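note to self: dont lose this again. the chain is below, predicted strucutre after it. 196 aa total, dont forget to put it in the shared folder this time
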Amino acid sequence: MHDPLYHRLKEGDADSFSLLFKQTYPRMMGYCHLFVKEKKDAEDIVQECFFSLWKNRENIDPDKSVESLLFVSLRNRCLNYLKEHSRYSFNSLQEGVISNELQYLYQVDFNEGKEMSVEEQLVGALKKAIAELPDRKKEILLKNKIDGLTQKEIAEKLGISVKTVEKHLREAKSELKKKLEKQFASLSVILCLLLQ
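---
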């Protein structure tokens, strides 16, 4: 992989850390909300992941995906949170997320480094699927999901109607869902929630 960002992050470059935070925070919050409904708790959990990454940055392997490492950390912290908070039940999680899918996520790990984690595979497949989107759909999706712009802000920025933005977002999410469901059939409910 040899991502220069990961090398700079390992060396303690605060700008690289800020860039990684900006790129991954919205997706991590979306993923965390699959497990944790309380916004403040979700924010705390995601921030703990970033804090832990920064604290242990010397151990970063620049040849592995730091994003995947963050998502593994996030998944584990979310599941620990659910275990500690008795009002949550593994049988009735987050508006219909199927418990056997969560059990699958809970059991999957790095397999002693021989295989990629499910998060690493999902992040890679998602990046590839986004890259293959038509330019306009890709641009609108990234402005919404990565830059955090509202549909109205995107419409104003691009000089198009809000309805056109909605249409492109809906179609982009539909295309991503179709591509990713083929590869990650066992996580179909979680994919649907991530692409909402």
